[in-house]
Input
Amino acid sequence: MTEFSDYFEPVDPAILKDGEAPLKNTLGEIIDTYTEKDFFPVLEEAHIAFLGVGEERRAHNNEGCMHAPDAVRHYLYRLYQGNYKGRMVDLGNIRPGHNVEDTYFALKEVVNRLLRVQIVPVIIGGSQDLTFAQYLGYEEVHNTINIVAVDNSFDLGDADSSFGSKNWLGKIILHQPNHLFNFSNIGYQTYLVDPKGVDLMSKLNFDTYRLGFVQKNIEEAEPIVRNADVLSFDVSAIRQSDAPGNANAGPNGLYGEEACQILRYAGMSDKLSSVGFYETNPSQDLRGTTSHLTAQLIWYFIDGFYNRKRDFPFKNIADYSKYRVSIKGHKSELVFYKSHISERWWMEVPYPGDKRLKYERHHLVPCSYKDYETACKEEMPDRWWQTYQKLS
Output
C-alpha cells in the first residue's frame, strides 16, 4: 500500500514567508505545512487538510491553471485567522501522474483516506475535471452523495467528446456504479448553456439556479450548499472584473463578495465534507487579483467551518420545533423542522421503506423559511417535489 506522504511534494518554504517568518496569528503560522521531505504533517486531530493539484492537461482554454495552488497559498498564508482555534494541515501538492488518470487516482485515494478519518479536504486546482476524482473519493464511504457546483455553465459536454473540464458532470452521471443522488448548479448563465442541457437537468430532477436568481436571493444559496457533500467551485462563475485570472471568465457573474458569502454558507454546512477550487489561472491574472480572491474564498470557508452549529437533524429533538402543513389534494401533511440553535429549516420527504439504507441521508432536506411559507399557501415547494421524485 502506498504511503500517504508518497502522493505529495513539499511546498516551497519561500511561498510561506517571503524571507521572513509568518506574522503571528496568520494562517501561515497556524497551518502545519509540509515543507520538508522528512517532516510530513501529523493528521491526528486535524480538521481541514489543504492539498494542491496542479493538473491542467484536460483544461479547456485555460492553460496555466496548473500554477494556481502555490499562487493561492501565497495570499492565503498571509490572511489572519478568525475567532477560532483551528487545527489545519497543508499536505503539499499531489505529484503529477505520468498521465492524467494517474493524477485522478492519486486525488481519489487522498480524498478517500481523509474522509475516512473525518478530515475535510480543501483542494486547490488545477482544472475542474478534477471534480470527477474528488467524487470518486466517496466510493465506499457513502452509498449516495450530493454535489453542488458554483459555475457559469453545467459542464455536461458532448457524450462523443473526449473527457475534460467542460464535461466532467456528464462523466459523473454516466459513471458506474453511480453514487450521485443530486446535483445542484449555482449561478449558471443562460446564454452559456444549451437549452437541451436545461431540459436534461430538469428531467434528472437536478436543481439549477440562474445567476440573476442567486444575486437577488443570495440567502437561498444557503440551503442549497447545506445539502451538499461535495462543492466544486469554478472561478469562471465570478465576473471578469473581480476575477480576471481565468481565460473563460466573462463580463457577467457573481461579485467577489457574493462568492465569499456562498463559501461561508458551505463552511457552515455540517454535511459538506470536501471542497474544490478550480480554474484559477495565474498566467491570466492581473496583479494576483484572482489568486488573492480564491484565498479569501478559502478563508470564508474556514470561517464558516469553525462556526458550524452541529445541528444537522437530529442530535436532540428538543432543539427543534416541528411544523405540520396540510396541502389540499395531497394525502399526507408536509413536515418542517426549525432548529432553535441556528434557526435553519429542514423538511421531511417520505421514501419507500425498502430503500432505507440507500436514501436515509437524503429524506431530511435543507430548506428555507420561504419553502415553509410556500407550503402554508397550499403550494408544493419545488425542493420537496424534486426530492420526492428521486426518492420514489
